[in-house]
Design a protein that fits this description.
Blueprint: E1 4-10, H1 17-23, E2 29-34, H2 41-47, E3 51-54, H3 61-71, E4 76-80, E5 84-85, H4 88-99, E6 106-109, E7 111-115, E8 118-119, E9 130-135, E10 139-141, E11 150-152, E12 156-158, E13 163-167, H5 171-191, H6 198-215, H7 222-248
Parallel strand pairs: 1-2, 1-4, 2-3, 6-12, 7-13
Antiparallel strand pairs: 4-9, 5-13, 6-9, 7-8, 10-11
Helix pairs in contact: 5-7, 6-7
């Protein structure tokens, strides 16, 4: 079977990286690129057999993932985030796909994400297909600061077993991410010469809540569905409010 490399980028992921690495311990190679962790992330990765490379800067998710990709040597690559887990069922499907790709250069994997302890099967979160398994040399990541995407030159197939995503364990973590991602999103929009106003920020926020909670059936996810819809609206509002202030400057 073709060699499989797993690539992961990290920063202060000591609480989650062990479970991620243990879920792919069967891979031929694990490459970790760390951007200056101050916790035990690097030591954990090394202890579990990963090849660890460190950087002193933060160029954004896309560039950093391409750095990790440059260190991979396998014919196939599986890109993971530190808070993602490969189940035994998904492992079997990945192995089968690599053995018989049927002309596919990459595969999209459904992702099942948790929110404050609940796996969300609505709200636009499932099935959240992400292209993560691909032939090395047939794809690379966009240079986006956040919400990077994998650009594939060949045909993409689909796997059926979900990738588990253990995200947002509590509201403190959620609020921190909202601040970080709304800032990065505003910077990206500003670089694209987009502008915003308070009216636009409020309008986008209201639409984000309606789309998540009503159109994408977030109400079927119980109280967590409502909390997610509110946080989505909040993140959207701050992204455009921050863009408004950036544009004003």
């Amino acid at each position: 079977m073709a060699k499989l490399s797993v690539i992961i980028i990290t920063k202060n992921e000591a609480d989650s990286i062990r479970a991620c690495l243990e879920s792919v311990a069967w891979a031929d190679e694990i490459v970790v690129v760390d951007s200056g962790s101050s916790d035990d992330t690097v030591n954990i990765c090394k202890a579990l057999g990963a090849q660890v490379y460190t950087t002193t800067d933060w160029p954004g998710f896309g560039v950093q993932k391409n750095r990790a990709l440059s260190h991979a040597t396998g014919e196939w690559v599986l890109s993971l985030d530190a808070d993602e887990r490969v189940t035994p069922e998904l492992r079997s499907e990945i192995v089968a796909a690599i053995r018989t790709p049927n002309g596919c250069a990459a595969f999209r994997i459904p992702r099942l994400s948790s929110f404050c302890g609940r796996y969300m099967r609505h709200s636009g979160w499932y099935p959240d297909y992400v292209t993560r398994l691909f032939q090395r040399g047939e794809a690379k990541f966009s240079d986006d600061l956040v919400h990077e995407r994998l650009m594939v030159s060949g045909t993409e197939g689909k796997l059926r077993q979900p990738l588990l995503h253990e995200t947002f364990h509590d509201l403190d973590e959620l609020l921190t991410k909202i601040n970080q991602y709304s800032t990065a999103g505003a910077v990206m929009l500003n670089e694209k010469k987009e502008t915003a106003s308070l009216k636009k920020a409020v309008g986008h926020a209201i639409w984000a809540f309606f789309r998540t909670y009503i159109l994408r059936a977030g109400f079927l996810d119980g109280r967590e569905g409502f909390m997610l819809a509110v946080s989505t609206a909040e993140s959207t509002y701050y992204r455009y409010a921050k863009l408004m202030l950036l544009s004003k400057r």
